[in-house]
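Workshop exercise sheet. Pairs work together: one partner reads the sequence aloud, the other fills in the structure field after running the prediction. Swap roles for the next sheet.
Pair: D.N. / O.F.
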Amino acid sequence: MEKRFNKVDRKDYKGGDNRNEGRSGEKRGGYSRPEGGRSFENKGESTRFSRPTSGSSRISDGGRSEAANRESREGSFSAPRKHFTKPAPSKEEMIFGTRPIIEAIDAGKEIEKILLQKGASGTQHTEIMTLARTFKIPVQQVPIEKLNALTRATHQGVVAFISAITYSTLDHIIDTCYEKGKLPFLLITDHITDVRNFGAIARTAEVAGLDGIIVPARGNAQINADAVKTSAGALHFIPVCREDNLQKTIQYLQDRGIAVVACSEKAKKTMYEFDYSQPIAIVMGSEETGISDEVIRVADEMVKIPMHGKVGSLNVSVSAAVIVYEALRQRAI
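Structure field:
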């Protein structure tokens, strides 16, 4: 069964003076726009719609071809944008409530960080702060809305994240190297915040046989399940040290006979001009700001990876792999 829509006199419609306003639901060119936003122009003859037959999706629109109609339809609508959100921490990674967190710390659980509600001053909150200082656990003061977004349960103003690894002490790593007659080879990450970049760096460090990775207690990527996965499990094998102050840590390394070299595009020397056949620690900087000025000031040397293309930088995990393997090459000579 067919339907005909006959031409209608323009004067019967408001705005029928050839003004095409184009808004949904208004009159356009003498015809009302059909629901759904598609309009059909008056070509001086009636527009004919044919009901599709079984097995066919052909539409006859003023003599236009099926291909033209398909192109018009496809061009009229855009696919909805996809919005990606950061996945929430799993229940295995997060604990909340003052007493459970105190018990977890007392039981020797490795805590990645603690989020404490701003203004919280109860007895157990104070106890958590004391334990955090004792065990060098980073504490971040946050508004209650942040905690409510993490869990709907009663969190009592505090949430903690279980670390996916057990941290090592820097003293132990260095002492072990010297006891074995080995020249320490360490990697320092200066506020690398991307979890996948950090995981890739850890993978390179473990495969290359480095003795450990040093990370700042605050401002570094969280070492969680994503970091372990990206490292291909390397974070379960290579020691990781968490230090409160990188400047003091570098000075301590220097006192122990370890040279610290910062890898930065700001350097004048290339990485080939440094002697890696000695106890060394290589510093890699943040993805956005690079190595901090405070760290550069106390480093023994600053070198860069030569760039010959139009793009002026490498991904930090790639840069780490390049300079680490140059150091291995020199050490093998």
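Discussion prompt: The chain has ten helices and 15 strands. What would you look at next?
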